[in-house]
Inverse folding.
């Protein structure tokens, strides 16, 4: 009798364990398969952009690459106005065919000391974290590309540039994963549009272009998204000093990637004050404010002190301004228009779309109306949030505003010479979340189910148009060492095989992503049919 009972109990535990594992596998397939498909799609898309965008592009890639090269080879940081870019970079850029393809005048000299601003390593005022991260792959690539099978000189430099671009694309994919997790939190009650939101984010052309070349914006986006994810995820948890410490460390690391991350400090302090108000504890506010500021100071303070010692102020921007000679050029209205257009501008061809910018401005206005109306209703106790909660919305708004306002102020005062969408990279994830949440609140029930699908389709069409019509025509091989990519000095068919493999993989990943989106859309439309 007892043996039978024991055997039965064991069977029950066995079946329960098997059932638990089956449920876990089903949950992982449901949650992580769409994410895996999206990341694969984004990675291959990033590889395409990284190989298509002109080498040594308009956006300071020579200087960003040299910062990493100088840090890896000289074991020291470059100095604004003193350090010049290396002869390898000058030779590679001068030998490229970007001058003919982009209708630029080829320089008569290939000496960085005679190239004016372009010859300086003028990103020297930037903090070093991104470039320090690049030093490991740089060292490995330097060893690999130093063999006789690699054509020496400019070909080696170019191969390393494209390889470091691929490493940057990987960082971009990690940032997308964090954004996906953020969307799962703020759109928790509408899981059907989480995948749509992440897809829209991955399809913004300016985001992919900015994060498919060597520059420090990608690490800033990754760390700021991580900080926002921790902040949003802590709104429904008991306030702790550990959370403040984590936020302080993330903000400090983000500031070591790019000093503009300092604008996240007010948002984190607002969060600390909000937590203290919930506890009715002024002591909590003082303690956690100290933890945040001390963490930031320990991590990033030394670099601010270095800039002050070298340039007379903590950002080092003034030294760059003196070197570049920039001056204010936008009125407020022009800044706003340039910002919306800049998100869609392909810098390599100078193509921007005012129509797309105007359309997105109208969509944003509709979404903002819905968010304000819903927030007021919830505040008056007349309804509830269908996505996340009011705190989520308010912190997302704070994140977007804190990135937008300093940018406009910087352009107006001359600290920023051009309005470009890449300057808003950390704001894209909160903006997409707010956009979809606002459309849900602003539109009637049926329309709110269809609007996210339509918006994703719109982004897919715009992305395809910009890639095919405006970016591919400006792709070029280097005149002096074709083929140019990762197999310099190897048989040309290897480059062809690489391109074909990536292209086919991208098509397969796009098809798989369409199937995942189709399933999400089916659930959305099914919900719409029941309304």
């Amino acid at each position: 009798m007892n043996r039978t009972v024991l055997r039965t109990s064991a069977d029950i535990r066995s079946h329960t364990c098997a059932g638990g594992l089956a449920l876990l596998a089903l949950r992982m397939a449901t949650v992580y398969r769409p994410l895996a498909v999206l990341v694969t799609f984004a990675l291959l898309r990033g590889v395409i952009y990284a190989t298509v965008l002109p080498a040594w592009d308009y956006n300071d890639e020579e200087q960003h690459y040299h910062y990493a090269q100088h840090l890896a080879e000289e074991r020291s940081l470059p100095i604004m106005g003193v350090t010049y870019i290396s002869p390898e970079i000058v030779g590679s850029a001068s030998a490229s065919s970007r001058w003919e393809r982009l209708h630029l005048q080829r320089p008569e000299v290939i000496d960085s000391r005679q190239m004016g601003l372009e010859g300086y390593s003028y990103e020297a005022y930037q903090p070093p974290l991104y470039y320090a991260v690049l030093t490991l792959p740089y060292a490995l690539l330097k060893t690999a590309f130093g063999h006789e099978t690699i054509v020496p000189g400019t070909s080696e430099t170019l191969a390393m540039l494209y390889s470091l671009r691929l490493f940057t694309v990987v960082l971009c994919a990690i940032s997308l994963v964090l954004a996906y997790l953020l969307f799962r939190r703020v759109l928790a009650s509408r899981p059907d549009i989480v995948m749509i939101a992440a897809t829209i984010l991955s399809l913004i052309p300016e985001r992919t272009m900015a994060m498919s070349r060597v520059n420090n914006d990608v690490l800033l986006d990754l760390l700021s998204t991580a900080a926002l994810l921790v902040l949003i995820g802590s709104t429904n948890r008991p306030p702790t000093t550990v959370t403040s410490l984590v936020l302080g460390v993330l903000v400090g690391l983000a500031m070591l990637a790019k000093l503009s991350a300092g604008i996240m400090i007010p948002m984190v302090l607002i969060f600390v004050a909000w937590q203290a108000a919930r506890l009715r504890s002024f002591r909590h506010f003082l303690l956690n404010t100290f933890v945040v500021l001390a963490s930031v100071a320990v991590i990033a303070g030394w670099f601010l002190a270095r800039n002050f010692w070298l340039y007379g102020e903590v950002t080092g921007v003034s030294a760059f301004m003196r070197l570049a000679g920039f001056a204010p050029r936008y009125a407020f209205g022009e800044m706003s228009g340039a910002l919306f257009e800049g998100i869609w501008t392909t810098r390599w061809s100078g193509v921007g779309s005012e129509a797309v910018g105007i359309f997105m401005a109208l969509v944003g206005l509709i979404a903002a109306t819905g968010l304000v109306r819903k927030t007021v209703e919830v505040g008056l106790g007349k309804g509830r949030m269908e996505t996340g909660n009011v705190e989520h919305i308010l912190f997302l708004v704070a994140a977007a505003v804190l990135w937008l306002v300093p940018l406009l102020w910087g352009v107006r005062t001359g600290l920023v010479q051009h309005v470009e969408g890449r300057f808003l990279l950390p704001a894209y994830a909160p903006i997409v979340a707010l956009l979809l949440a606002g459309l849900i609140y602003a539109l009637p029930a049926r329309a709110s189910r269809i609007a996210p699908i339509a918006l994703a389709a719109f982004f897919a069409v715009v992305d395809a148009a910009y890639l095919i019509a405006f970016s591919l025509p400006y792709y070029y091989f280097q005149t002096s060492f074709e083929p140019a990519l990762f197999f310099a000095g190897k048989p040309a068919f290897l480059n062809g095989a690489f391109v074909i493999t990536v292209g086919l993989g991208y098509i397969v990943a796009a098809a798989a992503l369409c199937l995942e989106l189709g399933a999400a859309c089916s659930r959305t439309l099914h919900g719409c049919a029941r309304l």
